[in-house]
Amino acid sequence: MEKVIKNVSIMCFHDELCQVYNALMTAYSLLKEGSNVTMFFGSRGVNALHKDKVNTLVCLPDQPKEEGDAVMARMDEMNLPSVEDLLFMLYKEGAKLLACPLNVPLFGMTKQDFVDGVEVADPATYYKDVVIKADMNLTF
After folding, report:
1. Which is nearest to 39 in space by CA: 3, 4, 82, 91?
2. Do 67 and 61 form a contact (C-beta atoms < 8 A)?
3. For a tag site, which of 85, 86, 103, 120 has the least CB within 10 Å?
4. Mean pLDDT of 48-70
């Protein structure tokens, strides 16, 4: 079957594990199908890129603790890759990982705080060169 190559922009504005995971798995699936993938992490989503926070994300923080813990336990049982592993896989396989230039200093971060492969987006070109030209713009 012929692969259909698309330019995909995925925006992630959450640091809740389930949302981040859905964004990353969608990105990875589209990347493996041959799409050109750019991920933009804005607002609290920049926490998902932080070296010290990437492995502390939790599911369903607004629900009773036992519900979030049950989802986290099932994710462990399924032996799913971690968020850090998915970010590394995306980076090494060619996805662009961008952090919001407004939220990075707002949350007291610098580029050095991020996992490998993350760049701070250039607001002068991001929307013009990525979002407007994308075949799909997905938001999580």
Report:
1. 91
2. no
3. 85
4. 92
